[in-house]
Structures are given as structure tokens and as C-alpha cells.
From TrEMBL, chain A:
Gene Ontology, cellular component aspect: plasma membrane
Species of provenance: Pedobacter puniceum
Compartments reported by the entry: Cell membrane
Protein name (Swiss-Prot/TrEMBL): HAD-IC family P-type ATPase
InterPro entries, alphabetized: ATPase-cat-bd, ATPase_P-typ_cyto_dom_N, ATPase_P-typ_TM_dom_sf, ATPase_P-typ_transduc_dom_A_sf, ATPase_P-type_domA, HAD-like_sf, HAD_sf, HMA_dom
PANTHER family given in the database record: ATP7, ISOFORM B (PTHR43520), CATION-TRANSPORTING P-TYPE ATPASE-RELATED (PTHR43520:SF5)
GO terms for biological process, alphabetical: copper ion homeostasis
UniProt keyword annotation of Magnesium present: yes
Lineage of origin: Bacteria, Pseudomonadati, Bacteroidota, Sphingobacteriia, Sphingobacteriales
Gene3D superfamilies: 3.30.70.100, Calcium-transporting ATPase, cytoplasmic domain N (3.40.1110.10), Calcium-transporting ATPase, cytoplasmic transduction domain A (2.70.150.10), Calcium-transporting ATPase, transmembrane domain (1.20.1110.10), HAD superfamily/HAD-like (3.40.50.1000)
One Pfam short name: ATPase-cat_bd
GO terms assigned for molecular function: ATP binding; ATP hydrolysis activity; copper ion binding; P-type divalent copper transporter activity
Sequence intervals crossing the membrane: 174-193, 205-221, 233-253, 259-280, 418-438, 450-476, 736-757, 763-788
From TrEMBL, chain B:
Organism: Pedobacter puniceum
Organism domain of life: Bacteria
Pfam family, one: FixS
Protein name: Cbb3-type cytochrome oxidase assembly protein CcoS
């Protein structure tokens, strides 16, 4: 059979290696893609292929089991709403990526009459489905979606985020504040331009309207500032909300008093403007990446349920947390072992890369304990649970105190530090002025006292951080570095020690770095490819991608020898591919890298050396950050790469191998006790503890849709080499905040010098407040973008 | 001059109507997904009478 050069799968756009899968003169790369096409063409949903070329995702990987979706208890946790006639569920579908996806998923109802309505939220990659539970079960629905290539990712933790009510309320508050602000501005102008005697009644009417507009701005839009300030006061913290709340309150009271006693125009415009600008600042600070989650723990990685064997041999799906000691569970190929268990039956070849970073699968014998988090590769296993999920070796990490602590223990932001002193100075100044004036004239004293609180209200101060940080965040976002929130920028700037994980972070254990020692001709390449193609072992996969796409030759008697290699018959000759011991009979010596030996017939061909590939520009990256930071490497792996890596670090003692997840956490803690500010860069579940313990935890991922452990930021693996720029940029961003604090303090001092005399006119306040705000907004955005240019970030 | 009172009353009323319209839309969830509708509007409804052949022209 010839390979089809240049033929791509009609469904997913991958190259087709065989002519086997064809229909309606179209080629498909695998049966999965073909069957999706068949379903869609039968249901007249061909428009799917019209909207985009090759809209599908490859269906080559196997199907998953959804039996657990029959369990009422699990269903209950997943759905949003249910009654007799309809059930509503939001499902997270990572495969959503183009308009065809939206079109198809919104036409699901044509595939089954039980589906009533469905709507896609593209950015969140979610589908809201209403279905009739009498006609289609949840399991059938999920299987249907899976069959057309849109398998929802079901996990009990945080995949589907409930729409946060808070953001909605914020925009409503901004709308109300903006409405009040606009109207008050309009009504205040006549007063500033001066009204003649005959127009005096207008002035009174306008003032009354202004007071009415202040009420919603004060009680509805500004409410949060009072609540926050009060809550912080109760725990003895003076943060920026305190002077803000005080300023808003004094503005409101003085406006009302001036109206009632008819002593002035009041500060309605300053009040509403202040609330409006502050809320805008708060809005800027909220940046949500709907497709990313920074809060994941092991529950996102583990399956929702496992198959438990009953005494009579029947299987039943049981939710993970219901699993108890003594349960006998069934783990199939590519499934994750959810709890520490003893192997009862089956050939266990466990891939622990997920837990330890070790790339080689480990074989286990009957009766041995298998720790949770390993992934079985090969045939099905029967295990007996010895510890519940939450007490298992890996998951115990989450019982560590680090995970119980609140976030507040991380680095204090500059604004919190400053506002503490600011509040104290402000109060001292205000009361000092009051005491100074009281003996002479209590009216002037009171007026000066309130004027100080009004003019010193740190509006510009409160805005400089949100505007700088939101600009910084969007710049980092463009460079594929996603931060959890704006505070992370300051955490990054404070770092002096950087700890790297190895596998997945500095190295990629994928299809490169393969070297063949020996002679290979076309025929042997074809034979090896044909044999390895059948195996899902990581080594076989790397060898296949190293060989490229070969002709398919017929091999027979294919057999996987667990933990050793594979054997097959080609043209009457035995083909052996695997460990040194299997192929040559010699003992496995000390190897620098994993080796795969080849023998065809009686002839020994040679061996593949599978080196781990390091990320691009790693050398440059490390020499760059070594200048200003202490760098360390922690690996769960054995020290096979030690020699190569040592040259990148300052001293061999900075590299530590065979580190358990707990060791990594302890290492970070130890460094922190020595007053270091530590950044951890890791990728796997085994780094979770260290990521959480560190002052800034960064998760590295190669596919942004993949799950990453809980962290402060997510970095796309392809831009790891930009890390020095990111760090410098975050320092610059903090510098911008410092300068803008200086600017807003200058405005405050100008205002205060007027306010202490007690002669603050509403017009002066109404001009100064927006002026300082606009200065700060434009300065911070321009300066941040300038800094980005300076550090060569697009 | 007293028309000014009337006119200001009118303008405030109009502004309140717009504010309420915004709040209604917000409560109604019209601003929860700001991206998908922009794609959805570009997609035509498939004509059910179309034959399979029309829908699935052979690939090049």
C-alpha cells in the first residue's frame, strides 16, 4: 500500500498515511474522523465542513468510558437544573476552536430529538444544553457529543465556572455611577458659570437634582468601599479603601449639609466622578481568562469515577471520594490510578511521568503497592484500594498546611504598604488642622477638616495600580504569559530565587533527540516503523516520529513484552525491539539515556538513544538569569541529564534529583526561611506543592488547553526563553507604579495646601480630581507600553 | 424660562430610560457572552431541502 503524499484528512486536516478510510471521494486519517463524517453527513450537517476547512480534531485516540454518568449522585453534581421535562447542563468542551464548532454544537438537536436547546459560549469553551431526561440520558448525550468529536471534559472541580455574579454587579454599579456623574456634571455647569439673580431658583432646583443623583451613587455604587474599609478596620488594617471611603462619606455629608443650610453648591460632581473613576479602576483590574484556571488540584486530573468490582463480579461506577479501603477497582489502558492500591491481577506498566516527571514507565509485580497518579499503559488491571483518595501518597500533599492558607500571606503589594502610612498621615493632618482652627473659628476649622479629607481622597493613587497592572497584564497576555491577577506582577518583581522543575519545564520529552547508533537501511526502517506503530509506549512513539512516515510492511505475531519491548515476525524472521537484556541477552548496564535495541532475525542492527530535548535557548535563558538570580533545579527524575544541565547552573549542588513532591515543597520552604523570595516554575501535579508554597508559582504548559496545576501564572512553553524579559518588565511595571504614586501625591499636596486654609471651592475640587485621574491613566498606560517596547515584548 | 424645568425633567427621564434598559440587558445576561454572537450571525441556516451531494462537494 502506498502512502498518500499530500492527502490530508477531510475532517481534521492531518496527513493521511493510508487509503483505508475513504468515503464520498474524501480521505480520512482514521476511523474516528471517518465516523464523525458519516454521522454528520447522514444528519445533513455537512455545513460543518463548509464553514471552515478541516474543522475537526483528530479522532485517532481511543474512546473514553462514560458509565459513571449513569450514577444519579454524580449527575446531581454536574447539572445546573433539572425537572421532569428538562435538564440544563453546562459542559466544558476543550475541542471548541472555530465557527464550525459553534455551528455544529448549536445544531445538536438535529441529531437527537431529546435535545431541546443548546448554546455555545466560545471564549469559555462551554456548551449549555437543555435536554429532556425522559428521552436522552446524560450519558447518551455525552456519548453522542463524543461520537462527533466534541467530548466534554468532565471533572468535579471548577471546569465549568459558574458565572460570577460579582462582575455583573460591578458593571451595573459603573452604569449607575456614570449616569449620575454625567447628569450632575451637566447640572453643575450653570453654577460654575454664575447665575444671575433672576435665575437663582434654577440654581436651587439643580442642587436638589444633584443631591438626588448623589444618593444612588453613594448608597449603591459606592457601597463596596465602605464595606471593605470596615472589614479591614475590624482586623486592624488600614488599606487604600479607608481614605477612599472616608473621602466619599465626607463629600456626601458636606454636600447635603451645604444644601440644607444653603451655604454653597456642594460637591456632587466630585463625589459622583470619584465613585465612577474608582469603579472603572476596579473594572480594569478584573481580568478573567475563561479558558484558564489557576486553582486546580488533583481532582481535575483524576477521573470523576472508577469502576469498582462487586463481590459477584459485576462492575459499578463509584465516585472517587466514595472509594473506601478494600474496594477492588478496575483500571483500563490509559486510565489513572486514583488511590494507593495493591496490584491483584494484570500486567502493570505504570507511567508515573505525571507524578514524578520520570519518563520511563515502571513495571510492577503482583502484590506490589502502586501509588496514586500513575497511568496504566497496557492491559486492564485489578487493584485493591489500601488508602482512600485523599490520604494517598500524592494527594496527601493537598492536606499540607500550604493549601489551607489564604492567599494574603504572599508578598504585600506596594499600594497596601503605602496606603497604611498615607491613611495615618492624612488623619494626623486633618485633625491637626481642625485643632489649629478650632480656637479661632470652628466653621473654618470644620470646613478645612472636611476639605482635607475630600482633596486628599487618593483617587489617583487608587487608580495607578489597576491601570498600570491591567496594561502590563495585557502585554504579558499577548506574549502568552497569563497571570492570575494583577498582584502577580508585583510578586514577580520581588523575586530573587528561581527554581525550575526538569521534565516538561526545561526539557520536552517528545519526538526529538533520538539518535540511532548503527546502520539503518530502508527495509529495516520500514520494519521497525511497522512494529513500533502498534505500540503506545512513549519510546515507540518517539521512534516512529523519528523515522517519519514509512511504507507499511506486513508484520505478524505482534506481541508486547511488558517492560521489555516488542516482538514480531517479518518475512519469517523474528524482530526484537526493546531493552538491551531482551535483545542481546546482556545485562542492562549504566546508561546515559534510555536505549532501544533492535534485532532482526539473527542480525543485531544497533540501538536508538532517546535523549531528552531541552527547550530552545535554555542555555541563553539560564546564563541570562544567573546574573541576577539564584537558580536551582529540582527533578523527580533520576540524574541522567545531570551532566548536561550542570553546565547551565552555578554549581552542581544547585541541581537535585529524585525529589518527591513533598521534597520540592520543603526545598522552597527552606529557601524562604532564609529570606529568599522564590519563584517556582513547574508543570506537573508533582510540582503543585512547590508552586503553592513559592512566592510566585508559574505553571508551564505546551498546550494551553491542557490542565495545569494550581499556580499564580501560566506560561506557554514556547516562550520560556522570554522569562528574563518578563521579569525585567514586571520590575519596570512596579517602577511605573512608584512614579505614578509620586505624581498623584504631588496633586494631593497642591490640593492640600489649598484645603488647609479652609477655602476649598467646589470648582477647584471638581477640576483637580478628574485632572489628576486623567494624568494618572494616561501616564501609566503610556509608560507601561513604553517599558514593554524597551524590553522587546510585543 | 420655566420650560427649562420641563426640558430638564424630560432629559433626565430619557436618561433614566436608557439606564434601565442597560440594567435590564445586564440582568438578562445579554452581556455575559460578547464574542459568540458575532460569529453566530455569519452562519446561514442550512436549507433542509439541500441534497447531501450539494452539501458535500468532493474535495479537491
Amino acid at each position: 500500500m502506498a502512502i498518500l503524499t499530500g492527502t490530508t484528512c477531510y475532517h481534521c486536516g492531518n496527513d493521511c498515511y493510508t487509503e483505508e478510510h475513504q468515503k464520498d471521494e474524501k480521505s480520512f486519517c482514521c476511523t474516528g474522523c471517518l465516523s464523525v463524517y458519516t454521522i454528520l453527513s447522514k444528519s445533513k450537517l455537512g455545513n460543518y465542513y463548509q464553514l471552515n476547512q478541516h474543522p475537526g480534531e483528530t479522532q485517532a485516540s481511543g474512546n473514553k468510558q462514560f458509565a459513571y454518568l449513569d450514577e444519579p449522585e454524580i449527575i446531581q453534581q454536574l447539572i445546573d437544573y433539572t425537572d421532569e421535562q428538562k435538564t440544563i447542563i453546562s459542559l466544558y468542551v476543550p475541542a471548541i476552536h472555530c465557527s464550525s464548532c459553534i455551528w455544529l454544537l448549536e445544531h445538536l438537536y438535529t441529531l437527537h430529538p431529546g435535545i431541546l436547546e443548546n448554546r455555545v459560549d466560545f471564549l469559555k469553551k462551554q456548551v449549555y444544553i437543555q435536554f429532556n431526561p425522559q428521552q436522552i440520558s446524560l450519558r447518551a448525550l455525552v456519548e453522542l457529543m463524543s461520537s462527533i468529536g466534541y467530548e466534554p471534559l468532565i471533572s468535579l472541580q471548577d471546569v465549568v465556572k459558574k458565572n460570577s455574579r460579582q462582575t455583573d454587579n460591578l458593571s451595573k454599579k459603573i452604569a449607575v455611577a456614570g449616569f449620575c456623574f454625567g447628569n450632575v456634571m451637566l447640572l453643575s455647569f450653570p453654577a460654575y458659570f454664575g447665575l444671575s439673580e433672576t435665575e437663582a431658583k434654577f440654581g436651587e432646583f439643580f442642587s436638589l437634582l444633584n443631591i438626588l443623583f448623589c444618593i444612588p451613587a453613594f448608597f449603591y455604587s459606592g457601597k463596596d468601599y465602605f464595606v471593605n474599609a470596615w472589614q479591614n478596620l475590624k482586623v486592624g488594617v488600614l488599606n487604600i479603601d479607608f481614605p477612599l471611603a472616608l473621602g466619599i462619606f465626607v463629600l456626601f455629608v458636606r454636600t447635603i449639609v451645604e444644601y440644607v443650610f444653603n451655604t454653597g453648591h456642594g460637591f456632587a460632581d466630585t463625589l459622583t466622578g470619584l465613585v465612577f473613576f474608582l469603579l472603572i479602576g476596579r473594572f480594569m483590574q478584573q481580568k478573567t481568562y475563561y479558558h484558564l484556571s489557576f486553582e486546580r488540584d488533583y481532582r481535575s486530573f483524576f477521573p470523576v469515577a472508577v469502576q469498582v468490582l462487586n463481590e459477584d463480579g459485576s462492575e459499578k461506577s463509584v465516585a472517587l471520594e466514595k472509594l473506601v479501603q478494600g474496594d477492588r477497582i478496575l483500571i483500563k489502558n490509559q486510565e489513572i490510578i486514583p488511590a494507593d492500591a495493591i496490584l491483584l491481577k494484570g500486567d502493570a506498566l505504570i507511567d508515573f511521568s505525571f507524578v514524578t516527571g520520570e519518563s520511563l514507565p515502571v513495571s510492577k509485580t503482583l502484590g506490589e503497592i502502586i501509588y496514586a497518579g500513575g497511568r496504566q499503559t497496557g492491559s486492564a488491571l485489578e487493584l485493591e484500594v489500601i488508602k482512600p483518595v485523599s490520604q494517598s501518597y500524592l494527594t496527601k500533599l493537598w492536606n499540607n498546611e500550604v493549601f489551607q492558607k489564604q492567599e494574603s500571606t504572599k508578598i504585600k503589594t506596594f499600594s497596601t504598604k503605602v496606603s497604611h502610612y498615607f491613611s495615618i498621615v492624612l488623619l494626623a493632618l486633618a485633625f491637626g488642622t481642625l485643632l489649629f482652627w478650632l480656637p479661632q473659628d470652628w466653621r473654618t476649622g470644620l470646613s478645612a477638616f472636611t476639605a482635607i479629607l475630600i482633596i486628599a481622597c487618593p483617587c489617583a493613587l487608587a487608580l495607578s495600580t489597576p491601570f498600570t497592572m491591567s496594561a502590563a497584564l495585557s502585554i504579558l497576555d499577548k506574549n502568552k504569559f497569563y497571570l492570575k491577577n494583577t498582584d502577580v506582577v508585583e510578586q514577580l518583581a520581588a523575586i530573587d530565587t528561581i527554581v525550575f522543575d526538569k521534565t516538561g519545564t526545561v526539557s520536552i520529552a517528545e519526538n526529538q533527540g533520538v539518535i540511532f547508533k548503527g546502520q539503518l537501511n530502508h527495509v529495516t526502517k520500514d520494519i521497525i516503523y511497522a512494529a513500533c506503530k502498534n505500540s503506545s509506549h512513549p519510546h515507540s512513539r518517539r521512534i516512529c516520529s523519528f523515522l517519519g512516515h514509512r511504507n507499511t510492511v506486513a508484520i505478524s505475531h505482534y506481541q508486547e513484552l511488558t517492560g521489555k519491548g516488542i516482538s514480531a515476525i517479518y518475512d519469517g524472521k523474528e524482530v526484537l525491539i526493546g531493552s538491551r537484556q531482551l535483545v542481546t541477552g546482556q545485562k542492562d548496564g549504566k546508561q546515559e539515556f534510555p536505549e532501544v535495541h533492535i534485532k532482526i532475525g539473527e542480525q543485531y542492527i544497533g540501538f536508538f538513544e532517546l535523549k531528552q530535548r531541552f527547550r530552545k535557548d535554555l542555555n541563553q535563558l539560564l546564563s541570562n538569569i544567573n546574573k541576577n538570580y539564584h537558580t536551582y533545579l529540582l527533578s523527580g527524575d533520576s540524574n541522567q541529564d545531570a551532566e548536561v544541565l550542570q553546565s547551565y547552573f552555578k554549581s552542581p549542588s544547585h541541581l537535585q534529583f529524585k525529589q518527591s513532591p513533598q521534597d520540592k515543597l520543603n526545598f522552597i520552604k527552606e529557601k524562604q526561611e532564609q529570606k529568599a523570595k522564590v519563584m517556582m516554575i513547574g508543570d506537573g501535579l508533582n510540582d503543585s506543592g512547590a508552586l503553592k508554597q513559592s512566592d510566585a508559582g508559574i505553571a508551564v504548559t505546551d498546550h494551553i488547553n491542557n490542565f495545569t496545576p494550581g499556580s499564580d501564572a501560566i506560561l506557554d512553553g514556547s516562550v520560556l526563553h522570554l522569562l528574563p524579559q518578563f521579569l525585567k518588565f514586571s520590575k519596570s511595571a512596579v517602577k511605573v507604579i512608584h512614579i505614578s504614586f509620586g505624581i498623584s501625591l504631588t496633586y494631593n499636596i497642591i490640593g492640600l495646601s489649598v484645603a488647609v486654609t479652609g477655602q476649598l471651592s467646589p470648582l477647584f475640587a471638581a477640576i483637580l480630581m478628574p485632572l489628576s485621574t486623567v494624568t494618572i491613566i494616561s501616564f501609566t498606560s503610556l509608560a507601561t507600553h513604553y517599558m514593554a517596547k524597551k524590553h522587546q515584548l510585543s | 424660562m420655566s420650560t427649562i424645568f420641563f426640558l430638564i425633567g424630560c432629559s433626565v427621564l430619557v436618561a433614566i430610560v436608557f439606564l434601565l434598559a442597560f440594567l435590564w440587558a445586564q440582568n438578562n445576561g445579554q452581556h455575559t457572552d460578547l464574542y459568540t454572537p458575532s460569529i453566530r450571525i455569519l452562519m446561514d441556516d442550512a436549507d433542509d431541502k439541500q441534497t447531501t451531494e450539494e452539501q458535500f462537494p468532493a474535495s479537491k
